[in-house]
Amino acid sequence: MGRIRILSDLVANQIAAGEVVERPASVVKELLENSLDAQATRIRIEVEGGGRKLIRIVDNGHGMVRDDALLAFERHATSKLRNADDLLSIGTLGFRGEALPSIASVSRVQLETRVAEEVSGTLVEIAGGNILRVEDAGLPVGTTITLRDLFFNTPARRKFLKSEQTELSHIAALVTHYALVHPSKHFELHSSTQALLVAPAVGNSADRLFQIFGRETSNYMLPTTAELDFTRIGLPEPPPWQREEDYVAPDPGFLRLTGFVSKPELQKLNRNSIYVFVNQRLIRDKLILHALSEAYRNILPPTSYPVVLLYLEMPPQEVDVNVHPAKTEVRFRQPSFVHDFVRDSIRTTLTQARPAASFVNALQNGPHGVSSSLLLDVSPLPGPPDGVDAIPQPVFGATFRPTTFEDGHAEPLGVQGERASYFSNGSETAQWDIPHSAEPVKSPTFELAAPIVPPSPGRFAFSGHSIPVGYDSADAESNYESAAPQQADTLTALSTLKPLGQFRDSFILATNEEGLWIIDQHVAHERILFEKVLHERDTEQIQRQRLLMPLLVDLLPAQMITFAEIAEELERNGFEAEPFGPRTLAVKAAPVGLQGRELEHLLEEILAIPDRNRQTENSEARRRRIAASIACHAAIKINQPLELSKIEWLLDALGKTEHPTACPHGRPIALRYSHKDIQKAFQRI
Questions:
Q1: Burial of 265 (0-12, 13-18, 19+ CB in 10 A)
Q2: How do 308-313 and 274-278 pair as beta strands?
Q3: Helix, strand, or coil (residue 153)
Q4: What is the rounded average pLDDT of the residues 590-618?
Q5: How far apart are alpha carbons 447 and 444 in whole angstroms?
Q6: Which residues of 647-679 are buried (b: 16+ CB within 10 A; e: fewer)?
Q7: What residues contact 236, with CB distance under 8 A and at least 6 apart?
Q8: Nearest 5°: phi and psi at 539?
Q9: pLDDT digits (tens, 9 = 90+) for 648-674
């Protein structure tokens, strides 16, 4: 008898479940995408035990008839594809027909659905892939899927799940970001103890960002939008002799980019706060991540990352979504085109915005004083802290737990700094307002009350102006504009600064109508020289100086190998150097402003490429790295007194740079203490 056997459908479905269903959040993702494909406008998600015990998703989509409800649990049964050609232009979030049968094979599922044309709906109950019950039922239009006991028949998979709070946080992050990409739809996420998210429909993405994270968070973000057509690099057409008489050239379509990117002052310690959607599909793509890193290169430190909500739209023919079992990765037909478009669009946004760092925010938060990701922190806290300082700062990515008030609305914790809620053993135990004064916080009182069902449409409770939600979304844009600050903090006014002097021969103090400015003289000059070196290198106008005697620099063998790789780039940047023995380099000329020991340090720094960057460094990154090193070593140092004329030149030149926000290594250049902040400090307002 042969060794090869055909697996049963149950085993095949469980193997597919191992690819599609990695954790409870994977189940929520598949079912949520099905609801969105069904044109649902209201989606409610209920979770218990971090998704282990219960996952219920209720939507008001178009529903299914009885035959479709049964066929949906067959493997590779789908309503979204007809033939192989449809794989080349997938316009829906789901298309394989593997999600429902895979999920049903490792859990107990109950499906309730009805279409508008039918009088009654259909109820289907399945456990471990076996159909237990099928009957008619009186149901509303739409679909409700209830999933219990995930991985009950595969304990090996169940024991690898994380804690309930960790799994719940992944679900919360997933739902939150799908709510951000679909502002016209109503989303709710409830656990067994609290409402994690209630987001009624709003007018646009800016309103949704403001609705979920609040005014102070949205002030850290810069809106970005760009569009480019595929006319020159669209789909290839057949030659004229192979075209039919009625042949019509395909529409190349457009590549559109919208979303929000963070100001340089908001930095994260990892990439978990970068969310990219391609045709409204949440993905994790290395190409886009690299483009974002290049856009923020020389603006953020190498170990810090921005916060990004990026929405890309392109013709379905230009992107292949069928390259990953969980559909979290895609492949672009023109990867370099998409990469350069994203990089240039984000960098243009940062160049035009020229955001100014607030002196007060820099003191309170700092570049790394924010949470490490956008995942919602839903872990129960042991109790209220001893002081106000323990409360999370209201910045993007801070924890938020919607607190229900008497009017039935929810306010995210962490978005508004004036109200906080704390939970013990997974339930809400205390709620109080944080006073603005330095008085000690009084002990909270405990209250028990029946849960209040939030009405729809309703309004989120914000500390400032509220924005309409639900059916009032027509006026949302005008109210959002009134709630936003009248004028963004930018560095456009740097050229109007009047210098007052130096502080400890390291920081320049200057003033204008906007307030008091503090400029780091070293990093300011470093930014000026960095852009000057790049410009002169591109135009082949680099200024170099010949040394009276060649400078001999001893290098390690690995550094000599690196020199051979980048010798041409060094020459374009003003160096004239050649090997002088097996481990010695003779430098005959160098860029203006570098000499002696400083020149030796510069060469050692340029030739010491970290191993992790050696394989990934391209020509553009190398060019910018060398320019940044030259600028750093040639710039004015700290503890160096400057004449008034030199300070005036420095401020004027800084105002003319493209990115006066940060030095090439990501450190902030200028901090502004605004007139309003000064008035507040002196209690005049």
A1: buried
A2: parallel
A3: coil
A4: 74
A5: 10
A6: beebbebbbebebbbbbbbbbbbbbbbbeebee
A7: none
A8: -95, 5
A9: 889 888 888 888 878 888 888 888 888
Which tokens sit at 20?
């599609």
Band (209; pLDDT cuts 50, 70, 90): confident
305 with 262: CB under 8 angstroms?
Answer: no
User: What torsion, rounded to 10 degrees, do the Cα atoms 382, 177, 23, 134 define?
Assistant: 110
pLDDT at 129: 83
Where are the extended beta strands (E) located within 42-97? 42-48, 54-59
Query: Which residues have C-beta within 8 Å of that of residue 680, sequence separation ≥ 6?
Result: none
CA–CA distance, 89 with 169 (Å, rounded to integer): 33
For residue 647, give the amino acid letter.
I
Q: What is the DSSP string of 313-380?
A: E--GGGEE-TTSTTS---EESSHHHHHHHHHHHHHHHHHHH-BPEEHHHHHHT-TT-S-SSS----PP
Strand partners, 305: 268
Rounded Cα gap, residues 466 and 179, in angstroms = 19
User: Who has greater pLDDT, 374 or 354?
Assistant: 354
Q: How far is Cα 538 from Cα 535, in angstroms, rounded to an integer?
A: 5
Cα–Cα–Cα angle for 493, 495, 497, rounded to 5 degrees: 80
Two structure tokens written together for 177: 């970001």
Tokens of 194: 């609290």
Q: Is the pLDDT of residue 188 over 90?
A: yes
The pLDDT value recorded for residue 234 is 60
The answer for residues whose C-beta is within 8 angstroms of residue 682's C-beta and 6 or more apart is none
In the chain, pLDDT over 90 holds for what percent of residues? 16
Q: Where in 33-120 does DSSP place strands (E)? A: 42-48, 54-59, 108-114
* CA distances from residue 87 to 243, 466, 642 in whole angstroms, order as listed: 23, 44, 66
Distance CA 371, CA 377 (A): 10
Strand-pair partners of 310: 259, 276
**Number of other residues whose CB lies within 10 A of the CB of residue 77:** 15
The reported pLDDT for the residue numbered 112 is 94
Cα–Cα distance, 346 to 328 (Å, whole number): 23
CB < 8 Å & 24+ apart, contacts of 495-500: 495/651, 495/652, 495/655, 495/656, 497/651, 497/655, 499/644, 499/647, 499/648, 499/651
Flag whether pLDDT at 377 surpasses 50: no
- The residue to which tokens 């400083």 are assigned: 598
pLDDT of residue 195: 87
**Span 296-309, pLDDT tens digits:** 888 888 778 888 88
The answer for residues whose C-beta is within 8 angstroms of residue 204's C-beta and 6 or more apart is 183, 476, 477
Tell me which DSSP letter residue 461 carries. Answer: -
Q: Which of 109, 178, 197 shows the shortest CA–CA distance to 149?
A: 109
Cα 152 to chain centroid distance, Å, stands at: 35
Q: pTM to 2 decimals? A: 0.64
